[in-house]
Amino acid sequence: MRFDVVSIFPEYLAPLELSLIGKARTEGLLELNVHDLRAYTADRHRTVDDTPYGGGAGMVMKPEPWAQSLGDIAEKSPATADGRKPVLIVPSPAGEVFTQALAYELAEEEHLVFACGRYEGIDERVLEWAGDQYTVRPISLGDYVLNGGEVAVLAMVEAIGRLIPGVVGNPESLVEESHSDGLLEYPVYTKPSVWRDREVPEVLLSGNHGKIAKFRKEHQLRRTAARRPDLIDALDVSTFSKAEKNT
Ligand code: ADE
């Protein structure tokens, strides 16, 4: 799988050289290239922004450097087996919300390109223009505003990249984590069994796998109901009760 990131702050993406994603890059499980948007400007000052038409606060990113960079990247896109277009992800608080389900969907793609906007955003015509070469998807991390797309890209690349087979050493750990079944993960404990007068729940020391599974499911439900009642409302109860019968 290939990722390309375009930003005026390429150094912001340096953490993607670390940990599991960095290792996956070294091992060739994923390719990740970071591009400096200013390298695609033609003026002496390497200008990437200008004042907004219609007035208002802040600056808007000029379209031409984006067209130059995204056009260049699209030309070099690895052709996908079924002739799919690369996906252009535009991090924006005005996008659809990024979820684990969306991470799984995007992990199936061959080539993801991220356009990190800054200031008040990118001239809207870039997103229209890019539609010929890309499937364009404005995506938001959540209902809050960041200073630019870079932090959102760090989160999305990590969430998507870890779903690529081989990136996470033990694939079992992807099965039981938060959001994999629509619920938050159960609480976890390690040694010592008594720590500062606090005991690990006894059932976890019992070796009774049926009871442990029941304890964990119950705590997933309790925790989700307390912290994220919206997820309980969204549960597909029919699938859930089938799974319950099997535990
Ligand atoms: N850029 C600014 N705010 C953002 C957000 N909430 N999600 C993604 N990209 C953003």
UniProtKB/TrEMBL annotation:
Q: Which InterPro entries match?
A: Alpha/beta_knot_MTases, tRNA_m1G_MeTrfase_C_sf, tRNA_m1G_MeTrfase_TrmD, tRNA_m1G_MTases_N, tRNA_MeTrfase_TRMD/TRM10
- The residues that the entry says bind S-adenosyl-L-methionine are G117, L141, G142, D143, Y144, V145, L146
Give the GO cellular component terms, alphabetically: cytosol
Gene3D superfamilies recorded: 3.40.1280.10, tRNA(m1g37)methyltransferase, domain 2
Residues covered by the tRNA methyltransferase TRMD/TRM10-type domain: 1-233
* UniProt key word Cell division: no
Q: Which GO terms describe its molecular function?
A: tRNA (guanine(37)-N1)-methyltransferase activity
Identify the keywords attached in UniProt to this record, alphabetized: Cytoplasm, Methyltransferase, S-adenosyl-L-methionine, Transferase, tRNA processing
In the record, the note on similarity to other proteins reads: Belongs to the RNA methyltransferase TrmD family.
What does the UniProt function comment say about this protein? Specifically methylates guanosine-37 in various tRNAs.
Describe its partners and assembly state: Homodimer.
Q: What is this protein called?
A: tRNA (guanine-N(1)-)-methyltransferase
